[in-house]
Amino acid sequence: MSKTYNQLNNEIGQLLFKSSPNGAKKVIAQLEFTPEMDVCRYLFDYYNQNDELNWYLLDDDITDPLIDTVTELRQYYIDNNLTNGLPAWRGCIITVDIENAKIDFEFKYEPFIDLYSEYDDHDE
């Protein structure tokens, strides 16, 4: 039996909430898939109690189910004709507001994660 839209959203929110660093007010997960959907690049950030932005890593026991569930959500969009005849999104930015128990999805259709510009510490 396939999951409902709400079940998928809740599962994604629970995974990100469970994995959030201590003191996080908001977590932001960026996931970008290759066109073949066989590789996923990701970044995880959070805002602490002082509204400072930091990054964090997730363990594979959270990352793998998160990627699987986001993939299921994408398939849900395709199966239920929610793409309006357009190609399905290839990534998303998921924001979980921990303080207000809210989740927001921003779907992306083009590559958007540049791993080197945001986190590059060396001079070129």
TrEMBL record:
InterPro entries: YezG-like_sf (IPR036170). It comes from Frischella perrara. It comes from the Bacteria. This is DUF600 domain-containing protein.
